[in-house]
Design brief:
The protein is mainly beta. The chain contains 2 helices and 21 strands. The strands form 5 sheets. Strands 6-5-9-3-11-13-12 form a 7-stranded mixed beta sheet. It starts with a helix and ends with a strand. Keywords: Signal.
Length: 302
Amino acid sequence: MKKTLLSFAILAANLFYSQVTIGTGTKVDSNVGLSTPISIYYGYSLTQQIYLASEIGPAMTIQKLKFYVQNPITSLDNTGQIDVWIGHTNSTGFQNVISPTGAAWIPVSQQQKVLTTGTLTYNGNEVTITLTTPFAYNGTQNIVITVDENKSGDDGSSYPFYQTVDYASDVSLINRSDYANPDPLNPPTNYTGPNSTTSTTEVQGKKYKAILTLIPQNLGVADARTVGDASITPNPASDFITIKTKLTVDSIDILDMNGRKVVKNITLNNDRIDIRQLSVGIYMLKINYKEGLSTTKKIIKK
């Protein structure tokens, strides 16, 4: 049992503290207007990028996406109204055919919408998109990230995004235009290969994608002083756990490591909840407060 709990502890450390950066270097697209994940140089853009399970690692709940640009940003006036979807996929690249119907977008209906009409933040060379709905990555499949930028106007050509080295096949798609805002539910399908100008109706593929850091929710010991200062004892536990907090608990949900609710709407009984029905493993305890706030804690069932 001690070895099992040690393994859980090591796994928890990886899950709750690690952030993953995919890609290195200072490569930029020679055509600044075709930068993924968004085209800062054009009024509208729609992109998809595939990141591989081998690049991501263990399961995590993704809270933020961080990208990198070549020059420190001083202002971004026209980049906003961003919609983002993330989904699991078994595809390792886009199977495109140069034709009016050859662009092989992965439908957003197969993905989870994680941001609606959001904005990005920037600090120096870093551009961060904070998701309003965190994405529970399962640790085994690849992921596809769709970014739809809907605000007209452009911010010039000074901020190309850093891109990864080439892959064997196309790992990103982009459509951008100053005049027509592409519809992610019905995206343009005229695939013109890697060397087109990509006009309003054209889609270009690339063998590289934006360098990306995936930032998970911090659900480990470091969150001991989050909303409500909730404390969990004992942890690990086998039967009951006691929750102490300064705020008033409304209900509690227990989630597995894929973000699925295992038990929901639990009420406290003398500050305790019963976890005997849970299988041995690691779970997330979401505490919902009557004040309208919530916090999430990691627990280990032994």
